[in-house]
């Protein structure tokens, strides 16, 4: 995996993530309670608050990077972190809307070490609850009734459209033999970068920041999102299922044209040629879902031999650097700058 500055204090990052959860979760739960049954309980299951039988649970609600960023962005604008809470909740609702739909479209049966919503409650509920979360996101912002809320909602809407564009590109690329590295980065910038960019600007907007400040924070978030997705792509092939909560070789099973695959195919040499031939045959195979572990392992080995893994690790580090450089254009308290840097470091060294 890519490495960041070993001297960073990871304890600070854990505290930032926990602060995001602590401040955002009560507001998030209140929003979910507005949903009509059974959508409210289906959403509660997705967030890990209850189990499949409806009993209270202490599930893994995700990394909470986006809420942490929204609160920090409010502080970057000179406001209290609480000013960013509606933005944190709105972004988290949009993010989870996308997860509910993505899991169904990708056929993923596991998320956060539990069965996905469509697997437990059916595809119709996954679609409906995802739609409901998307609607709630704008409601949470616009009910504030302020000029800043309108500006924040505009950024969230733009990011949401980009996210959906990215998902459409991702699905389309699964059915193509070749995708360029540039196309893959554009797709991942839409699918992941746009919403992280929104998370790290929306709190600042709610805190009264001008567009210049919000745009600079957005650039940090966009490139951080590309670093985040590059690491996700590495974990999607080589991640430990015990840590990721997904199957081994999960992205290969779904024929995803992720960065390691695309970079490997773009390389010269026998490994890239062999990989290209195998993936082309895979696209036509009728029994692809029955491939053995050894067959997926062989494809992963070819990706690594062709340089796809090393290239993606380097790209994660490069995007991390660009993200940190974007912060130079923002005047903010030193401790907030240090915390944004520490969160960026966390993104590129995580294991799930």
Strand content of the residues, in percent? under 5%
Mean pLDDT: 92
What CATH first level would be assigned? Mainly Alpha
Number-wise, the strands total: 2
Helix content: over 70%
Q: Overall 3D geometry?
A: globular
Q: In CATH terms, what is the fold-level topology?
A: Farnesyl Diphosphate Synthase
- Structural class computed from helices and strand pairing: mainly alpha
CATH superfamily: Farnesyl Diphosphate Synthase
The major pleated sheet works out as: 2 strands, antiparallel
Order of helices and strands: HHHHEEHHHHHHHHHHHH
Q: Architecture, according to CATH?
A: Orthogonal Bundle
Give, in spatial order, the strands making up the sheet with the most strands. Answer: 1-2
Radius of gyration over C-alpha positions, nearest whole angstrom: 20 Å
InterPro entries: Isoprenoid_synthase_dom_sf, Polyprenyl_synt, Polyprenyl_synt_CS
Pfam families: polyprenyl_synt
Organism: Streptomyces rutgersensis
Keywords: Magnesium, Metal-binding, Transferase
Write structural notes for this entry:
There is one protein chain. This protein is mostly helical. It has a single domain (10-349), classed as Farnesyl Diphosphate Synthase, CATH 1.10.600. The chain has helices spanning 10-32, 39-47, 65-76, 85-106, 117-121, 123-142, 147-174, 181-206, 211-238, 241-244, 250-253, 259-266, 270-284, 293-305, 308-326, 334-349; strands at residues 110-111, 114-115. α3 packs across α8 (181-206) and α4 (85-106) runs antiparallel to α6 (123-142).
């Amino acid at each position: 995996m890519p490495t960041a500055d070993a001297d960073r204090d990871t304890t600070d990052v854990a505290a930032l993530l926990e602060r995001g959860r602590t401040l955002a979760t009560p507001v998030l739960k209140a929003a979910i309670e507005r949903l009509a049954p059974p959508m409210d309980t289906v959403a509660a299951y997705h967030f890990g608050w209850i189990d499949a039988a409806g009993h209270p649970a202490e599930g893994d609600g995700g990394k909470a990077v986006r809420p942490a960023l929204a609160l920090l962005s409010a502080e970057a604008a000179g406001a209290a972190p609480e000013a960013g809470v509606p933005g944190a909740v709105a972004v988290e609702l949009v993010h989870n809307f996308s997860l509910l739909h993505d899991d169904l479209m990708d056929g993923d049966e596991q998320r956060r070490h539990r069965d996905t919503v469509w697997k437990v409650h059916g595809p119709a509920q996954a679609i409906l609850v995802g739609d409901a979360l998307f609607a709630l996101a704008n409601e949470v912002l616009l009910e504030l009734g302020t000029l800043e809320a309108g500006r924040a909602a505009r950024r969230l809407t733009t990011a949401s459209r980009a996210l959906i564009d990215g998902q459409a590109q991702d699905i389309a690329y699964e059915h193509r033999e070749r995708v360029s590295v540039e196309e893959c980065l554009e797709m991942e910038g839409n699918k992941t970068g746009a919403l992280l960019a929104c998370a790290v600007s929306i709190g600042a907007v709610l805190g009264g920041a001008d567009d210049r400040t919000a745009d600079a924070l957005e650039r940090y978030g966009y490139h951080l999102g590309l670093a985040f997705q590059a690491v996700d792509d590495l974990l999607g092939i080589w991640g430990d299922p015990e840590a990721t909560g997904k199957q081994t070789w999960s992205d290969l099973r779904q024929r995803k044209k992720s960065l390691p695959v695309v970079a490997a195919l773009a390389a010269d040499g026998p490994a890239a040629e062999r990989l290209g031939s195998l993936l082309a045959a895979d696209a036509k195979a009728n029994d692809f879902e029955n491939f053995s572990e050894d067959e997926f392992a062989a494809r992963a080995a070819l990706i690594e031999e062709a340089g796809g893994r090393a290239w993606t690790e380097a790209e994660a580090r490069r995007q991390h650097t660009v993200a940190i450089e974007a912060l130079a254009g923002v005047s903010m308290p030193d401790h907030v700058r240090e915390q944004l840097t520490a969160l960026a470091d966390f993104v590129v060294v995580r294991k799930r």
